[in-house]
Write a structure and sequence with these properties.
The protein is of the alpha/beta class. The chain contains 7 helices and 7 strands, in the order αααβαβαββαβαββ. The protein has a 5-stranded parallel β-sheet, sandwiched between helices. α3 packs across α4 and α6 runs parallel beside α7.
């Protein structure tokens, strides 16, 4: 109901979806519903320049390209070489010709251009992917992992903000619940930007949300984080 581009196929296993002709011919792309939300919040337009950090494997990149009707320009940045080639492959298969892919650490990205829209779909501790019946899904997790991710997320978000046009929109998204990686990162970048950035609501009609946390482990967050 909240996206005319999203189709839910029922009664099919994942393996069966892969065998559908529309999927094999790259007309449809398999993407989780939650993965589509950051791009819908960003709302890229066909005349705009868009910067996409941590872009692989390319689901959000090509989603943006489709919304922009393959016009404007998307610069998709990925640091990990195998994932970078996956990103390029997905863009080519889906015919996303308004995308240029860059192999570099987004924290060291350089450009003479400023962008209308920026997406930072950050690497994170992936707590929303935990499965109670799959020990491997939580095997890598630790409080230390959260701290490691926070440092990376801060660097990515700060770098991204430097390429945003005045009045432009930057969307920061994770697939984790850890306040340190969500409310905490937003609180940090607000203070770091010294008034250059301001937070805006990101509600989508028909999507449920839960309230922001104002304090976590003795640390208070700015009221704007709500």
């Amino acid at each position: 109901s909240w996206s005319s581009d999203a189709l839910i196929l029922t009664g099919l296993a994942s393996e069966q979806c892969r065998e559908l002709e529309l999927v094999k011919n790259n007309v449809l792309y398999r993407q989780s519903l939650s993965s589509m939300l950051p791009v819908l919040v960003l709302d890229p337009q066909k005349e705009e320049m868009v910067l996409d950090f941590c872009a692989a494997p390319g689901s959000k990149t090509t989603q943006m390209s489709a919304l922009m009707e393959n016009q404007g320009e998307i610069v998709a940045v990925e640091a990990i070489r195998p994932r970078f080639y996956k990103l390029k492959s997905v863009c080519e298969l889906l015919g996303a010709i308004n995308v240029s892919c860059k192999l570099t650490d987004a924290r060291r990205f350089r450009s003479f251009e400023l962008f209308d829209k920026v997406l930072v779909d950050a690497p994170c501790s992936s707590e929303s992917r935990f499965k109670t019946d799959d020990p491997k899904s939580v095997g890598y997790w630790s409080p230390r992992k959260i701290k490691e991710m926070v440092q990376k997320q801060r660097g990515l978000l700060l770098s991204a903000s430097r390429f945003l046009k005045s009045g432009g929109t930057l969307v920061y998204s994770t697939c984790t619940f850890a306040p340190e990686e969500n409310e905490g990162v937003l609180d940090w970048v607000l203070r770091k930007s010294e008034g250059q950035l301001e937070l805006a609501p990101a509600a989508i009609e028909g999507i449920k949300s839960y309230p922001a946390i104002h304090e976590w482990e003795g640390k208070s967050y700015a009221p704007e984080v709500e």
